[in-house]
Write a structure and sequence with these properties.
7 strands, 9 helices, 7-stranded parallel β-sheet, alpha/beta, about 40% helix, Alpha/beta knot, 2 domains
Length: about 240
């Protein structure tokens, strides 16, 4: 079963939340109770309040490491902008995390920004500039998209100029910047901990988002998961 991406993202869109719950209950009969309990526990810590945007990353191992960090910190959505470089997850680095997170591919940074703003996100570019806001001081009361640039040149002027704000990770050594995957991991650690500690932020997935995500996760642990899920659906609801 491939990662959660544009080829299967709307797979369960036709179902009501009650139907999704029935599908999930049927699917859990095909794998262990321990796995079901794991899904039920982990989905409670998933969030779309914070998401990540990667602009034209040309080293797949760095982008894959960011996916791994997103999974570890419960960040569900990663947006990949492919201006020149095509991205495919490196399984040796991602350690299978691409199976558990959603990633979206976009042809341009401005289209990405437009789509995220339409969903209520504030666009925050990560930069090493002296006057930028420290990551620890960033206001995340609003849904926040963190934007990371290429390994050598950073974000493009277009990505910088059209962002809503700027943030930096503090550094005290001779080196002028962190590796992108390290910068992303540090940023996500700070912000997800801050988010979870704030009772005023409604950061969890909705009930329907949670059950939908558990359906995708179920497909990852069932052999030929998509075909099996379609078979379960036919048995429960007939042909759609």
């Amino acid at each position: 079963m491939p990662e959660i991406n544009e080829t299967n993202r709307n797979l369960f869109a036709q179902y009501t939340i009650e139907e999704k719950q029935r599908l999930y209950q049927a699917a859990t009969e095909l794998y262990s109770e321990n796995k079901r309990q794991l899904f039920d526990r982990l989905v409670l810590n998933r969030t779309r309040h914070i998401c990540v945007v990667l602009e034209d990353i040309f080293q797949s191992h760095n982008a894959s490491a960011v996916l791994r960090s997103c999974d570890c910190f419960g960040v569900q959505d990663i947006h990949v902008v492919e201006n020149r470089n095509r991205y495919a997850p490196n399984s040796d680095v991602s350690m299978g995390s691409d199976k558990w997170v959603d990633y979206y591919k976009h042809p341009s940074i401005l289209q990405t920004y437009d789509e995220l703003r339409a969903k209520g996100y504030r666009i925050i570019a990560t930069l090493p500039h002296e006057n930028d806001t420290l990551i620890t001081d960033l206001d995340i009361s609003q849904p926040t998209a963190l934007v990371f640039g290429t390994e050598l040149t950073g974000l493009t002027p277009e990505a910088i100029d059209h962002a809503d704000g700027y943030v930096k990770v503090p550094m005290y050594g001779f080196t002028e910047s962190f590796n992108i995957s390290v910068c992303a991991a540090l940023s996500l650690f700070y912000l997800t901990e801050k988010m979870r500690a704030n009772p005023a932020i409604d950061w969890r997935l909705t009930e329907e988002e949670q059950i939908t995500l558990k359906l995708y996760w179920s497909m990852q642990v069932i052999h030929d998961g998509r075909r099996v899920m379609e078979h379960i659906s036919t048995n429960l609801f007939g042909n759609r």
